[in-house]
Amino acid sequence: GDAAGRAAMTRSVVTDVLLVAVGGAAGSLLRWGLGHVLPSGSVWHWSTLTVNVVGALLLGLLLEALTRPGVESRRTHTARLLLGTGLLGGFTTYSTFAQELWEQVRSGDTTQALAYAAVTLVAGLLATAGGMVLGTRLGTRPSSHARGVAEGPEQ
Question: Would you state the pLDDT for residue 146?
């Protein structure tokens, strides 16, 4: 009855929260690691620009590939929360981007700040569009089994 329905809903919500938390932790660690690998301290904040543009590309690809088939299955729901909301949500960072812009404006480097903002926004938009194109191709490509093609190395 009602109690069983509430228990199932609670399990579903807890599972969703855990998916987002695990994905978010992994994405944040990836961003943190990239911040230690890419150069910093210049007008162009390479690690922030990279994670935001790569994240936009991957999110466009993921969401387009997942939503193209139509109704969201449990599997696509799980992938969307773990990889989209969690991993890529933790990987990308609008707050750091905004803080970096503010620091540039505050230090009198308004022209560079505007250029950085424009490059980030245009690159992110183009990356999202590119990801969506790739996602559409992946989401509509029939599997090898559906085409009757045997798997294995090409002859």
Answer: 42
